[in-house]
Design brief:
Elements lengths: L2 E4 H15 L3 E5 L9 H6 L4 E3 L4 H13 L3 E7 H4 L4 H10 L5 E5 L17 H6 L5 E3 L4 H13 L4 E4 L4 E3 L14 E4 L4 E5 L3 H14 L4 E5 L2 E3 L3 H10 L2 E9 L4 H12 L4 E7 L9 H7 L4 H17 L1
Parallel strand pairs: 2-3, 2-4, 4-5, 5-7, 6-7, 10-11, 10-13, 13-14
Antiparallel strand pairs: 1-8, 6-12, 9-11
Helix pairs in contact: 1-7, 3-5, 8-12
Length: 316
Amino acid sequence: MELGRPNLEEFGATLLEMGRQNPDLLVVTSDSRGSGKLGPFAKALPKQIVEVGIAEQNLVGVSAGLASAGKIVFAVSPACFLTTRSLEQIKNDVAYSDNPVSLIGISAGVSYGALGSTHHSLHDFAALRATNNISIVAPADNFETRAAIYAAAAHPKPIYIRFGKRPMPHLHAPDTQFEIGKAITLAEGTDVTFVATGEPVVQAMQARALLEAQGVSCGVISMHTVKPLDEEALLNAAAHSRVIITVEEHSVFGGLGSACAEVLMQVGADVRFKIVGIPDEYTITGSQVEIFNYYGITPEGLAEQAQALLGSAVAV
């Protein structure tokens, strides 16, 4: 797979392109223009960026006010702080007040690596899935990032989009269609299907290559929108595969896996199912790669878990 740039860089470049076209597009940031790759935007469009300092609650409140006045607003802050410190403002000022703010959580998941658990964002899907009137998106590559930002600017409702920091391979053909709430099937399989979101989609695709070489028919779905979940795509995969494995850079509680389990259980789907993510424990300290390796969010780890589930399915 051809390597692109980090999704955050694609985000910054896309936002600058859009800002030049529309003076009503504003960026509000909490001392995050550097880490959010907003330096070029600030230099080119200084009147379209608002800096509130390290004050995430103010960030969300100011963004809600600007959106209520008709501006197209992107609120940018580290995901770990944006969705905890200012959760009340997200709930009341943005979601419940129906202000169409695009909340951008940067360095999400375990992207901050060695900074430790205080800087990991393993809760954001869970917190916002339980909040009415907000969509949740985690792009897998540069294509999904660019498409998601354009879609967010036109989206009439609040939306949360999270990004990591590593360069991402290109996964999609240029003519791929992107729509909030509609998953993208990257490959179809009759034995196992990985349903992944965000950066772990790459690991799922690489695991597919390993499994296919072993004679296992493997599908991969990029479930870029965690809420609203594309239930049709999930149920179609469950109807045609013996095993479903969800993969996410998030706690195994309350995220993509939980959302998929809720759907599958309520319809009584006859499929083996496993959630791969970060377990409910003190997360180890290390780089994102080291943390992924430890918890099996790797091509080899995913392929091994798929084979184990397929074996148990045969045994039954």
